[in-house]
Fold this sequence. Notes:
The protein is α+β, with helices and mostly antiparallel strands. It is built from 7 helices and 4 strands, in the order ααααααββαββ. The protein has a 4-stranded antiparallel sheet with strand order 1-2-4-3. It is globular, with a radius of gyration of 17 Å. The N and C termini lie far apart (47 Å).
Amino acid sequence: MSAFLGPIHFWLYNKIQFQESLIDELVRVATAQGWSDEDLADKYCSKDRRKLDEVIDEANIHGWLQSRIHDAEGRYAAFVLAVAGNDDARLEALKKAAYDFGASQHLSAATAPEAFHRLDDLLLDGMPCDQVNRVRESDDNRIAWDRTMDLHSEFWQGRGDLYYALRQSLVEGILAGTDYTMVSPADGQYEIVKKAA
Length: 197
């Protein structure tokens, strides 16, 4: 456990906030489409967006961050399952919204490893100590890594495929303005490679 706030804690909190912003955007789309009579924002969006040093329990930094991750992951899954869990058309609309949200980040990257690191600065994959993404190969035009564990599916009531479908669309959007794309040659294996000319 850390005794003080360091750069890694702010980095992780920013990743949590990125996921919160994604949830906000998907909820906005679902609300605009009239998919629920409930107030989706009230039910699924985080109300507290203060800076990390204003909200964190400094006596329990690691535990507090872990609880925020679980809260964000749980609300994201609950929202998608509630509004689009068994509706392919709605899922497609959410995938398009995730892509558009990703593209709005205007990510730039000169190399495949730079694109990987920029994604890693945004995407929530548990705590840094979990070491979820392990790089296998890397050069300027390609980086390949393995997902060492699935920290997301537990929140999705057996529908982790929905999480990964939305994540793929989000990543495609994030990389849209670069010369790179992400592919998955096998379950749990990923590569960022140059787009075909």
